[in-house]
Amino acid sequence: MSSEFLFVTVPNTDSADTTLRNLHRASSSSATLFKIDVPVLLVGTLDTLMNLSDDLAKQDMAVESVVKKIERTHQDLSKTEGSIPVNGISREHFTCNFAWDYAKYPHKRPLKELVTLVTTGVASIEEELRNLSTTLADKASSLSEMRRKKAGSMLVSDLSSTLPDSVVSQINLLDSEYLKTVFVAVPKSLKQTFLSSYHTIGSDLVSYGPSGSRDSSKGSPCVPGSAKCVLEDFESSLFTLTILKSQYTSGHYEGTSFKSGSSLDFLDLFSKACRDKRYVMKDYTHSPGAESRSKVILEEGEAKVEHMQASLGRWCKAHYGEAFTSWVHLKVIRVFIESVLRYGLPVNSTTCVYQVKAGKGDVLQAQLVEMFKHLSPEEDDGEKEEGGEEFLPYVCQKFNLD
């Protein structure tokens, strides 16, 4: 079934039925014709009509954009290419059998108010879609981060929630006044280099010089012979090291003023020295059962995302019809305004919708141009309207559902 439609309004040279028969006879080979009833709307002043005509092109594009966003969102969530029904029927059926919604859009209201009703309603839908999509994106991002920490390499994973208790129980974790056990993740390609040189990491951090001249000799805070491989994955090895936690520098006199001593913490400095060699010192706080709790949190995150996706999918189905209906009404308002500007008052025209047969769009246009060429001023024959669009001797609005 073709998804290309054309709303057309032409003046009645005889009765409306005669006009319809002539339209059908002239174009039956290229499109299927459907009559639609357009109420006589409040015209207002010529200035109002011309201003609305200029604004409606942008507003039409904005409303179409919202309709397409809902379609794409629903397709992304459902993983299908099928269209969403409009009020329980297909988009094509709704368009071909369009009926003005007098309850929602009272035809005795000024045209400008009708357009505002359409656009503000769609803007509200767009805002709600944006908020829901942002919420879903945030939850999905959080879930992705949890999965990365849970399933990723030890170079990026969170040890506090992924290191099994069975492994921790085999490690002698030191955290005394002077010494601390740290975890260092090493890319497998650097494992041998690490084993041969780990005791030199941060070789300028600790002062080993004699009393009174501590800074004369420097070394690493890492205890030689302390490296132990406790776990490996597909791209890294996890080692424990014992390092000196800190070093106290005693106070001293500068002239008659006494400068208090200070303590130099090596943990952050050692971590930076590891990064310089492409090793990663991992934060770790032992908490029995943390792995199980992490699994539960991950499952809860997955459930929240699935629930949000289902809710957004239902929202798309519920609001798509409203947005699509508003879009079609805006198209009808546009052809009504253009027909008044083109044909004048009182309103004596017929509006129909063509469902164009596949690949027959240009043929239909040529047929209609030939049928109504008497409405085209000779001096404008073949010219284009301001803005580069071709002048047509009839009023039309294209409507593509793809």
From TrEMBL:
InterPro entries referenced in this protein's UniProt entry, alphabetically: ATPase_V1-cplx_csu, Vac_ATP_synth_c_sf
Family annotation (Pfam families): V-ATPase_C
Gene Ontology CC terms, in alphabetical order: vacuolar proton-transporting V-type ATPase, V1 domain
Alphabetized Gene3D superfamilies for the sequence: 3.30.70.100, subunit c (vma5p) of the yeast v-atpase, domain 2, Vacuolar atp synthase subunit c, domain 1
UniProt KW keywords: Hydrogen ion transport, Ion transport, Transport
Molecular function terms from GO: proton-transporting ATPase activity, rotational mechanism
Record's function text: Subunit of the V1 complex of vacuolar(H+)-ATPase (V-ATPase), a multisubunit enzyme composed of a peripheral complex (V1) that hydrolyzes ATP and a membrane integral complex (V0) that translocates protons. V-ATPase is responsible for acidifying and maintaining the pH of intracellular compartments and in some cell types, is targeted to the plasma membrane, where it is responsible for acidifying the extracellular environment. Subunit C is necessary for the assembly of the catalytic sector of the enzyme and is likely to have a specific function in its catalytic activity.
Subunit relationships: V-ATPase is a heteromultimeric enzyme composed of a peripheral catalytic V1 complex (components A to H) attached to an integral membrane V0 proton pore complex.
Family: Belongs to the V-ATPase C subunit family.
Name this polypeptide is given: V-type proton ATPase subunit C
Organism: Triparma verrucosa
